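Field reference: sequence -> structure
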Amino acid sequence: MRLPLRQSIEDALEAGDLVRVYAWRGGSYVLTPATAAHVLAARAASRVWTTRRWQAQGHFQLEDWAPLREALREFLTDGPKTRPEIVAHLAGRPGLQHLALAATGRGADALYKPLHWWGDITFGPERDKQATFRLPPRPGPPAPDAATAIRWLLLRYLAAYGPAGSANLRYWFTEGLSVPNQMLTEALAELVSQGRVVETLLDGTATWTRPDDVAGLADAATTDQTLLLPAYDPWVFGPGTSDGMIVPPNRRRLMSSGHNPVIQRGVVVGTWRERHGAAELALFT
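Structure field:
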C-alpha cells in the first residue's frame, strides 16, 4: 500500500478527518476523531490535573480551569494561535493574568494537555516553526465514559499486538496513557467474562488474545525474511522495548534512543542506517 503524502495528511487535519492531540507519554499523535475520542477519554481517567503536583507544575488552581476554557474557546474562534499569542491574550484578560506564566515555559504543557484530553483544543498547523493550537475543525463523536473507552482500546490493542501479557498492557495503558491499573484490570476482566478476550499461554506465560485470532496465531508460519524498520516503529514500541521476546534486554537502549531496528523472525537482531545511498547493517553477535 502506498503511504499517503504529507500533504494528504495536512489536508485531512485541516478538514477534521484527522486530529493531532497530546496522548501517549506526552507526545502528539495523529488520530481519527473516533479513535481520539476513546484515547482521550482513557487518558483523562487518571484526573491527574487535580493533583497538587500537577497544579504546582502548571502554576494554576482548579478554579482556574472554567474561565480558562471559556477564554480559549473564545480566543481561538478566529483561527489557530501560537503559545506566545495565547500568553499575550491571557496577560491582558482580567482575572487570568496569572495564567500567562502557566501558558509558557517548562510547565506549560501541564496547562495545555488537559485541554486536549477534554476535546477543547487540538494542534493546528505549524507557523514559522512554532506549534499552534486550534478549536477542533468540526464537532467530534461524543466522548465515551472512561471504562467504555478502555475496553474499546484494549480490543484494538490486542488486534494489533496480541497475544499480550500483563507487562505489555501496563506499558501501553498504565505507563503510556496513565490509565489507573485498577480500571485496566477491571476492563480486561469484563472482556474476558463476555468471551471477547481469552487467556492464552505464550512460552508458559499468561497472555490475552481475541478469540478470532487464536486459530491464525496457532497456524502462523515463521519466515527468515529480514526486515529493515524505521526508528520507533510500532512493531517494537507497541509491545514495548522492555519486552525481551522482541528486544534483547541489553539492546533496549538502542531502540529507545532512535536506532533503526533489523528484524528477523519477529526479533530485533541488529540496527541499520542509510550510508551513501545503501543500507548499512550492524547485526548483534
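Note: The mean pLDDT is 90.
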